[in-house]
Amino acid sequence: MKNFKLLIGCLTVMLLSIVITGCEDEMMAEVKVGSISAEAVFQGSPVSLTGEGFDQVQFVFVGNIQASFTLDGNTITFTVPDEAPVGETTITLAMPRNVRATYVFEVVLKPSPVITSFDAYVPVGGDLVIKGSSLNNNTSVTVDGISATVVSAGDSELVVTVPSGVDETSAIEFEITTTYGVAKPTTAFYARESVIPNSDLEAEGDGVPFAGWELLNAGDGAITAITSGYGGSRSMRVVPAAGNPWDRQVASTAVPLNFGDVYTVVLWAKGETAGAQMRVSVSQYDGNGADYFYGETVEMSTNWEQYTWTFTVTNDLPTHRVVLDMGMGAVPFAIDQIGLVPGSIGASGPVELLANSSFETDLTGWTALNGAAEVTSAEAYCGSQSMTATGAGGNPWDVQIASDAMELEVGTDYEIGFWAKAEGPDGVFRLSMSQFASGQSDDFFYSPDLTIPEEWTYFSFVTTAQATSTGNHRLLFDMGASTQTFFVDGVSVKEYEVSSSSEYSNGGFEDGLTGWTALNGAAEASTDAHSGSGSMTATGAGGNPWDTQIASDAVALTVGNQYKISFWAKAAGPDGVFRISMSQYDGNGADFFYSRDLEIPEDWSYFAFVTTAQATASGDHRLLFDMGATTQTFFIDDVSVVEHDACE
Asked: Quick one: pLDDT at residue 382?
């Protein structure tokens, strides 16, 4: 009897369910689409449908992509998804129990602004001409974050005025905002005028590949136009002659320059493989002493990078030419965006690879693998905080602080730099890279044990990235050897490149000893080079440091500014020691910097120091190599003195 009652109950529930369902179907109003706001709509644009029964709509689809919607009375509004396929498609309204209503319309490609080319060198107040597509939809433009006046706006060309207040000393960017998106250039722009024509190499000349450029020594097909450019559709491809710099040579149109003024040649280049080289000279040789500037030879990256040469017009000539000397080496390369601009400009240097280099966001990006570290505001070189850790008096790795992993390019040189100080005497630590793996298989760099002074001191090393088991690399501070407390700030890891913008000329000794003088003893040019084809060599006298002393030409540095002095050196044998100093002794206390005695290895080694320029009686400053203490023979190359801000 109980089983029978249960069966009756189940049948009753089933019958009731059928009755209710049937009633609901009868009560559902028909869903109809009456009209659409537009039959063809851009991706990312709003669409409105009017009709009947829209209160039953649960979902809206454009093709197979769901779109959020709003309902206002008998109107549904939604935005066509950016990823909706272009062409004829269907709007689908989805209701309960798989009821559907559809409407066919067209999705049109969203007219996002696209930049294809622009004038790379335009001064403040000048017209910046930008070419591309979809540039005219309610356009607003900023240059270096400052609003720019729109002169004209068409679909394929936009003209704006470069506003005052932008950075005129380095590469900046502009931004175009339209109804349908934002566009930024992928290549550099300078708020400076280039005084030579056809900087972007886009114009073809009458019988020559590039208007405004003369092929002086071109060889047969060695200098050609190619369609892959840095900032546009054309660039210059060069096949060197494996000979003299002037064996491949291109000269700009002759232009007047102001006697005594400073100018900078700036260009972008990339080698097809490692080892591509070139330099710049001004003005073209005429047999009457018209050549007054030869820039340092630079070795180019295999990626598009900027190279600059700054010079002073020391010859009062009617006109001047920029000459690209490209005959050395055998590696082909490309050049683009060649400018000659008034004044000095900063190069777009290598990118900082460490996050939170100055510990302003506490220890973000850093991990204490052994021991402990923290941030402190009691001591800081950059900003308001530094990292501090105390050694364990044991193994170096007993206190070990590691950066987050970086992906370095195997075989590429990187410069590691940082500032450090100790709370008291006898503090020692070292650096290493990369993080310890089984059998130390991943460790490819260890610095020497570094004695850390009690005042902020700059340290720098160059190492070549090697393969690791993970493909990543970490920088480690191994601080466990002593019990001293250390402070570290302004840490940097960047791809190393030989400087092409030193305050002192011919630091690579590619032009012999031009720009350098032997004050005591003797020096000569050598072909045993760290880079390029030249170096300087001198032999010590086995007496006072200054008994063999080589000095740069005098340059007026800016008093109070910091300068980074760097160079490569090696000795012909063991036990070689020298020092550097600045500025030349004049009996009035003009010497304000002496390095420690430097032990010079028999392999090319990198040295770097940071000092603050102080006033001298003459107003000038000279860099000196004091090599007289031993009788060893030394080689010096790639000397650079540049303004330095470790906290940038």
From this structure: 87
Cis check: omega of the bond before 283, within 30 degrees of 0: yes
Q: How far apart are CA 60 and CA 46, in angstroms?
A: 13
Distance between CA atoms of residues 537 and 572, nearest Å: 10
User: What is the number of other CB atoms lying within 10 angstroms of the CB of residue 63?
Assistant: 18
Secondary structure of the chain: what % helix, strand, coil (to 5)? 5, 40, 50
Percent of the chain with pLDDT over 70: 92
Q: Are 442 and 494 in contact, with CB atoms under 8 Å apart?
A: no
Res. 360 pLDDT band, cuts 50 70 90: confident
Q: Per-residue pLDDT for 189 more than 60?
A: yes
Whole-angstrom distance, CA of residue 527 vs CA of residue 512: 10
Cis ω on the peptide bond leading into residue 147 (within 30° of 0)?
no
Q: Are strands 40-42 and 100-108 parallel, antiparallel or unpaired?
A: parallel
- pTM, entire model: 0.52
Cα 179 from Cα 51, distance rounded (Å)? 29
259 bridge partner residues: none
Strands (DSSP E) found in 37-86:
40-42, 46-52, 59-62, 65-67, 69-72, 75-79
Tokens of 197: 């024509």
Taking 60 as the threshold, does the pLDDT of residue 4 lie above it? no
pLDDT tens column, 249-270: 999 999 999 988 889 999 999 9
Q: What is the DSSP letter of 396?
A: G
